[in-house]
Structure prediction request, 432 residues.
Amino acid sequence: MSAFAAARRYVLLSVSLLCVPTASAQGLLQNPGFGSDLTPWQVSLYPPNPSAASASASWFATDASGAMQSGGVHLHAKAVFDADHASAWIRQCASVTPGSLTTLSARFLIIRQVAAAGASVDIGFYANSDCSGPLLASTSAEALPFHASPTDSGGRWLLTETMALTPAEARAVRVGIGVQAARTRFYGDAEIEAIADDAVLAASPATPARWLLPSAAWLHGANGSHWTTAFTIANAGSEDAAVTLKWLGHEQDGRGGREFAYVVPAGHSVAPGTADWEALFPEEWGAVLVSSSSPAVVVQSETASWFGAGTVGQSLPAFAPSDFASAAAKTLAPIRENGSYRTNLVLANPTDATILAVARLYSADGILIGSREVSLPPLGMTQISRVAAALGSPYLELGRISVSTPTPGGLLAAYASVIDNVSNDPRTILPR
Prediction:
């Protein structure tokens, strides 16, 4: 993580996020071009009463298109030793359509950018129409990349854009245009001065592609293991993709899980911050629902534990509909559980309805050893640890598991981990 990214996260958590509702039936912004003032944008400054640090946001008679009868917003933030972070934002709340693709853009003229400072746009979704209550999901984009030495935009107006899939529970979006600065021990004082103009909030119909990561974890496990999951999102398509990772947890209805929004440029790969997920979900494990505006996105997880001077672990792809079991069973093999290995079985429900999952264990010669039925709530997930013993065979040199669901219209994601008892190295057994 860059120094600026870490500093920016701290700043954002410290700012009071204010908003005002709009009357637009289309969810568009009021006064997006800052014609003669900032009405009805709400100004949010940190610190609110500057001393050593400073923050300001005011109307400025400079327009991105050179129009004489219009202007922009002048933004300034400076962080020094006695006040180590500062920010200046203008915000507005607008209505949204659940499931749509929401896009926010603005133009920035960067006059001065020093050390850990920058200008950005952000969007955050809320269940309440006035942008109150818990934040459902958010994303942002920087105008200029971090640069240790003073820089600017070279007299150019930089188009800065971010986008996200609107959560099903969202009724409003809070948009923000702002600057932030954070003094760091390594880079010293930070400062940003910029003019912003031409804010555009757009919403378009979207039919997201969906996948399911059956399991992710940040917890201590058997035999001294400590499992940590990292994600990779790769966009092989020709257009930028809005991607949402929704935390579903385990042994619960996952529909109300927290969402994390990312923008992956065309042809690029990104790795969402593992530390952020681990900090939010310590000693937690569960499934993750993936939604994307592009079907060309590939999502992979890597779950690893320390072993000696290195790590052991497994990689797991996000499951597509063709990977799910239904009334037609999927097979997991080989299954082993003896002095050398233990096997865990993960079952996850990719649908918004409760399903019945059925797991059957067979010996190497095809004899049914035992079975278990598990009720999974909507977007629910569970793990059967030491699954061979749980299904009737405490010692199994070689076997297989069949998974299916008799629920009409039901789908079931499943995989097994065959784990070495000495090294804790897991082998991923995918359904076939």
